[in-house]
Every structure is written in structure tokens, then in C-alpha cells.
Design brief:
Layout: H1 10-22, H2 26-38, H3 45-57, H4 61-73, H5 80-92, H6 96-108, H7 115-127, H8 131-140
Helix pairs in contact: 1-2, 1-3, 3-4, 3-5, 4-5, 5-6, 5-7, 6-7, 7-8
Pfam families: PPR_1, PPR_2
Organism: Amborella trichopoda
Keywords: Repeat
């Protein structure tokens, strides 16, 4: 692209990143992110969601959480997809306290939980034997 005077933008990088993530080419996806930083482009929420989803699928939820925290440092606002992806993975791993803390943070940041958010947390709480907590969350909804 650069050879013909056309510079890649965030959409171009998002498209490439999505393909790399779907192909499970994690290292290349991370290299692409570095290239984007080098080209002084700021990742957007779509790019972060793609990375977070890939990392969750590869069972590296801690790395996914690190990218979530990075979003706040560069003023990239997480959206409902970000939160639901992370909460789902945390619930699968029985990390309910972290998932519930993320739920509170989500509300604090002005991102309103949806049906997926609540059903994910309620299912995780029930799976963890915390029926009363699940009922409380249901009443909150």
C-alpha cells in the first residue's frame, strides 16, 4: 500500500488483525499491533475487542485483561462487547469475583449491562453455587 502512496489506516489494520486472529496467528497479530503503534495510529475499540476475544479463546484471560487495562491508559473506551467477552471468559474460569468487579466497573464507566451481561454473570454464579447472589443480580436487572 505504501509503495503506491496509500497509507493503511485503523480500518485496514482492524481487517488484517481480524484475519490473523481468526487464523490463530497470535504472534503476527501482536506484531501488527506494534506496527500500528510505530505508524502513530491509535487502536480503536474494535481492534481491542478483536485482540481480547482472541486472547480469551486462547485461554490467556490475564493477557486479555492487560489489554483491557491498556484501553483506559490511551483513552479508548471499552464497550459492551469488551465487557461481555471478558466477563464470559472469567465466568468460564470460575473467576467470579473478577467478573463481578468488572460488572461494577462497567456500570461506573457508563456502559449499561445488557441481557448477555446479566445472563453470563447469573449463569456463572449458579455454576459456582452462589444462587442467592444470582437471585440478587436478577433482582437488580
Amino acid at each position: 500500500m505504501g509503495r503506491i502512496g496509500c497509507q493503511p489506516n485503523v480500518v485496514t489494520y482492524n481487517t488484517l488483525l481480524d484475519g490473523l486472529c481468526k487464523g490463530e496467528r497470535t504472534q503476527e497479530a501482536m506484531s501488527l499491533l506494534e506496527e500500528m503503534y510505530h505508524n502513530v495510529l491509535s487502536p480503536d475499540v474494535v481492534m481491542y475487542n478483536t485482540l481480547i476475544n482472541m486472547l480469551c479463546q486462547r485461554n490467556t484471560v490475564e493477557e486479555a485483561l492487560a489489554f483491557y487495562r491498556e484501553m483506559g491508559k490511551i483513552d479508548c473506551q471499552p464497550d459492551i462487547v469488551t465487557y461481555n467477552t471478558l466477563m464470559n471468559e472469567l465466568c468460564k474460569r470460575n473467576k467470579m469475583e473478577v467478573a463481578l468487579a468488572l460488572h461494577k466497573e462497567m456500570e461506573k464507566m457508563g456502559c449499561r449491562p445488557d441481557a448477555v451481561s446479566y445472563s453470563t454473570l447469573i449463569h456463572g454464579l449458579c455454576k459456582d453455587g452462589r444462587i442467592e447472589d444470582a437471585m440478587s443480580l436478577l433482582a437488580e436487572k
